[in-house]
Amino acid sequence: MLSTILRALPLRCQLCHHRLEQHDYPWCHACHASLPRQPRCLHCGLPTPYVIESCGICLKKPPPWDSLVCVGAYAFPYDKLLHRFKYQGHYWLAPALAKLLATEIESPAPLLLPVPMHWKRRLWRGFNHSSVLAAELAQQLKVQSEPNVLKRIRATRQQQGLDRQSRLSNLKHAFSIEGKLPPHIALVDDVVTTGATIAQLCRLLRRQGAERIDVYCLCRTPPDAS
């Protein structure tokens, strides 16, 4: 009954709120064409003047993953869309957000692992947004997504606002892993800023035999921009 009512309602662009045709949802052609794009380092995902294999930062201190693919910075309109998806229950945005990310991925990993959420936080929020995003992304890339391989076994404080040392201490012994892994995997998250959480997971995955680790995220933002 509810789905029938929803289908009968006029669809509107999630950015400019103009009426849409069914196949355009969730944004119109004009808004989609105006979505910001920026050249980035293929290794760390940070902005660069032009697309480059490894930037100066990566050459000096390579991150523990092999490549990072993102859609853009955590700024308008991506920040608004993610806020609606994560905190306002707009689950219907997941396929469109995953599609934006899927178009940036050329050779997908055969297995996607969402960044895990502690059960207490998942209970409070109602769902793990990274798991939902990974499942949608896997469907579009025609690969597998396994939400239960990585576990967050210790409730941690929010990373935002912590200095580097505090972030590292906060994540110590926070994760575990179950099951065997293929040589090539990808971690999926919504936003990567300092990369501390992703780096901790990468170290755990390397110890379990992962040979190549990609990171797929919607937004990649420099630490001083968060």
Please give a structural write-up:
By secondary structure, the protein is an alpha/beta fold. It has 2 domains: about 1-35, no CATH class; about 35-225, 3-Layer(aba) Sandwich (Rossmann fold), CATH 3.40.50. About 35% of the residues lie in helices and about 15% in strands. It has helices spanning about 1-10, 30-35, 55-60, 80-85, 95-100, 120-125, 130-140, 165-170, 195-205, and strands spanning about 65-70, 110-115, 145, 150, 175, 185-190, 210-220. The strands form 2 sheets. A 5-stranded parallel sheet has the order 1-7-6-2-3, sandwiched between helices. A two-stranded antiparallel sheet has the order 4-5. It is globular, with a radius of gyration of 18 Å. The chain starts with a helix and ends in a 6-residue tail after the last strand. InterPro entries: ComF/GntX_DNA_util-trans, PRTase-like, PRTase_dom. Keywords: Kinase, Transferase. This is Ribose-phosphate pyrophosphokinase.
Number of DSSP helical runs = 9
CATH topology of the largest domain: Rossmann fold
Topology order in helix (H) and strand (E) letters: HHHEHHEHHEEHEEHE
Q: Main beta sheet: strand number and arrangement?
A: 5 strands, parallel
Q: What percent of residues are in strands? A: 5-15%
GO molecular function: kinase activity
Domain Phosphoribosyltransferase: 130-222
Keywords: Kinase, Transferase
Family: Belongs to the ComF/GntX family.
